[in-house]
């Protein structure tokens, strides 16, 4: 049973822009799937549809056996974006446990889980620190920790390392792979325009190619990595 299933999915924005057309994709448990393609080919749109943040306008789309909007409510799906979305006035532990706070999880349990995920990203000594005291790479680690706190089955990452310098990017790629290797049941969908990053990280690469003035095709390319 596929975790994410797109059948002939299309998206036309209200202003008439055809962002995605006839997209077909199956993502199974434990896949690390990278989406590559030039800017404007519809990568973020596909993600936002899977995430339940925007609707599709044709075809059918299911996530973990239900609609994306329903899947999102179940907190089995987590997101990481390029711009960190940390609360500036909250400590790292408060930031990473925010999803649990919103879900009404008791404080003691939140603290233990917060410490667990901060350790996963190498920030266990920074629990009380505020985000502004951190470098870009460290802020990204906090965003990843927050996404992991509810043990998601599906992790969606939209150009997470796009704003980082090359060295930091490579370090975070290694760290992300380590985390994924510790929990191989987690499915990761990762957007990047960097083919090297895609080849390094993924078990499978989805190449999205724009046709001039038109639409995008999705082609699954089996890669001999890693
Ligand atoms: P990518 O992530 O690959 O850069 P996007 O999914 O962001 O591609 O965009 C695909 C196309 O849809 C682009 O032509 C973009 O300008 C357009 N688009 C994206 N979001 C919207 C929106 N909210 N309204 C109208 N057009 C949009
Ligand atoms: P990305 O970096 O993922 O390609 P963009 O910079 O293209 O994203 O878009 C940033 C935001 O602007 C997104 O929320 C997207 O939906 C929206 N957007 C992009 N293109 C358009 C457009 N042509 N009209 C309206 N909104 C757009």
Number of helices: 8
Strand order of the largest sheet: 5-6-7-3-8-9
Please write the string of helix (H) and strand (E) elements.
EEEHEHEHHHHEHEHEE
Question: Quick one: overall form?
Answer: globular
Name the helicity range: 25-40%
- Rg, rounded, reads 17 Å
User: Could you describe the largest sheet, including whether it forms a barrel?
Assistant: 6 strands, mixed
Average pLDDT figure: 90
The helix/strand class is: alpha/beta
User: Using DSSP, what is the number of strands?
Assistant: 9
| N-C termini distance | 24 Å
* Portion in strands: 25-35%
Low-confidence stretches: none
Bound molecule types: adenosine-5'-diphosphate
Organism: Cohnella suwonensis
Keywords: ATP-binding, Nucleotide-binding, Transport
Protein name: ABC transporter ATP-binding protein
Domain ABC transporter: 4-226
